[in-house]
C-alpha cells in the first residue's frame, strides 16, 4: 500500500496534471479517479482531492464521491484539496471542508490554481493554452512545497458566486440532451472511453448520452473528429486539452 493517495477528477487534463505533479513530488502516492466510488483500505499520511471548479463549486461527481468515502480510519491524516479553475475556487473548497468535517475529519489544506478555462459549452477556447499551462505549473510548485511540508491552510470563506452552484449543477446534468454527433464521427468510441462517469454508451457505432452528465466537456474536447457539439454553439469554439496530458492517460485511469 502506498503512503499517500490522491483522488482526482478531470475532463481536459488540468486537474490530472496538478494531481500528477503533486503525486510525483510527494512520492509513494496512488492516483485514483473519482469517477466511481472507492473504498479506502488502510491508513495514509496524506489524502488529497484534486478537481475542477464547476459553477462556483465542486463537480457533482466529486461531491458524491467525497460524501461516500469512509474516512474513519484516516481521520488523523493530512487531508488536502486543490481545485483548478479559470478564475477562482468560489465555494469549491469550503464545500469539501464541510463534508470532510461532517465525517469527523479535517481539511488541513485547501488551495486553488488558475488554469485554462475549458467550458466550451459556454465560450470559445482561448489561444493561450501553452502560457496558461506554464502558469499552472508555476503555481503548482508552491502548492507542492506546502503539501510536502504538511502546511496547515484551511480554505477561506465562500465567494458569493457559490450561491449559483446548486441550481447550476442540477441544470448541467441534463445538458447532454443538447449534444449532437455529426456525420464526421468514425465510431472510434474515444468519447465513451474518456467520459469519467460512464455517461456515454456506444450503439450502432455512435455515442448515446445517458443524461447523468457532469458537463466535464471531455467527450467534446477529445473527439478526434470534433464531431460532438452542444446544439449549434460549439462548432466554431475550438477545442482544448492540457498540452502535457495524453488521451491514453485520460482513458487508462484507475
Ligand atoms: C461545466 C464547467 C463549469 C465551470 N465553471 C467554472 C467556474 O464557475 N469558475 C471558474 O473559474 N472556472 C470554471 N470552469 C473552468 C474549469 O474549472 C477549469 O478550466 C478547470 O481547470 C478544468 O479542469 P480539467 O481540465 O481538469 O477538467 C468550468 C468548466 C466547466 C466545464
Ligand atoms: S470520439 Fe468522436 S469520432 Fe469517436 S465515436 Fe465519439 S463522436 Fe464518434
Ligand atoms: S458525457 Fe461528455 S461532458 Fe458529460 S460527463 Fe461524459 S465526457 Fe463529460
UniProtKB/TrEMBL annotation:
<dbReference type="InterPro" id="IPR017896">
    <property type="entry name" value="4Fe4S_Fe-S-bd"/>
</dbReference>
<feature type="domain" description="4Fe-4S ferredoxin-type">
    <location>
        <begin position="174"/>
        <end position="205"/>
    </location>
</feature>
<dbReference type="InterPro" id="IPR017900">
    <property type="entry name" value="4Fe4S_Fe_S_CS"/>
</dbReference>
<dbReference type="GO" id="GO:0046872">
    <property type="term" value="F:metal ion binding"/>
</dbReference>
<dbReference type="InterPro" id="IPR029039">
    <property type="entry name" value="Flavoprotein-like_sf"/>
</dbReference>
<dbReference type="GO" id="GO:0051536">
    <property type="term" value="F:iron-sulfur cluster binding"/>
</dbReference>
<protein>
    <submittedName>
        <fullName>Flavodoxin</fullName>
    </submittedName>
</protein>
<dbReference type="Pfam" id="PF13187">
    <property type="entry name" value="Fer4_9"/>
</dbReference>
<dbReference type="InterPro" id="IPR026816">
    <property type="entry name" value="Flavodoxin_dom"/>
</dbReference>
<dbReference type="Pfam" id="PF12724">
    <property type="entry name" value="Flavodoxin_5"/>
</dbReference>
<feature type="domain" description="4Fe-4S ferredoxin-type">
    <location>
        <begin position="206"/>
        <end position="233"/>
    </location>
</feature>
<dbReference type="InterPro" id="IPR047964">
    <property type="entry name" value="EFR1-like"/>
</dbReference>
<keyword id="KW-0479">Metal-binding</keyword>
<keyword id="KW-0411">Iron-sulfur</keyword>
<keyword id="KW-0408">Iron</keyword>
Amino acid at each position: 500500500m502506498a503512503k499517500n493517495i490522491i483522488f482526482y477528477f478531470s475532463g481536459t487534463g488540468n486537474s490530472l496534471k496538478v494531481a500528477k505533479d503533486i503525486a510525483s513530488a510527494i512520492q509513494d502516492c496512488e492516483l485514483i479517479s473519482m469517477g466511481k466510488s472507492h473504498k479506502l483500505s488502510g491508513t495514509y499520511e496524506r489524502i488529497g482531492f484534486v478537481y475542477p471548479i464547476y459553477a462556483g463549486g465542486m463537480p457533482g461527481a466529486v461531491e458524491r464521491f467525497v460524501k461516500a468515502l469512509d474516512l474513519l480510519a484516516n481521520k488523523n491524516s493530512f487531508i488536502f484539496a486543490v481545485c483548478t479553475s479559470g478564475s477562482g475556487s468560489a465555494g469549491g473548497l469550503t464545500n469539501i471542508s464541510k463534508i470532510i468535517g461532517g465525517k469527523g475529519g479535517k481539511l488541513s489544506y485547501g488551495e486553488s490554481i488558475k488554469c485554462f478555462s475549458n467550458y466550451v459549452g459556454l465560450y470559445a477556447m482561448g489561444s493561450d493554452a501553452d502560457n496558461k499551462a506554464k502558469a499552472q505549473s508555476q503555481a503548482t510548485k508552491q502548492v507542492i512545497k506546502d503539501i510536502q511540508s504538511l502546511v496547515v491552510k484551511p480554505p477561506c470563506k465562500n465567494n458569493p458566486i457559490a450561491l449559483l452552484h446548486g441550481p447550476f449543477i442540477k441544470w448541467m446534468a441534463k445538458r447532454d440532451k443538447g449534444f449532437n454527433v455529426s456525420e464526421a464521427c468514425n465510431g472510434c468510441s474515444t468519447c465513451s472511453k474518456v467520459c469519467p462517469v460512464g455517461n456515454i454508451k456506444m450503439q450502432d457505432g455512435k455515442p448515446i448520452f445517458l443524461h447523468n452528465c457532469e458537463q466535464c466537456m471531455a467527450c467534446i474536447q477529445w473527439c478526434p473528429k470534433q464531431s460532438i457539439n452542444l446544439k449549434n454553439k460549439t462548432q466554431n469554439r475550438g477545442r482544448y486539452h492540457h498540452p502535457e496530458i495524453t488521451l491514453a492517460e485520460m482513458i487508462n485511469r484507475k
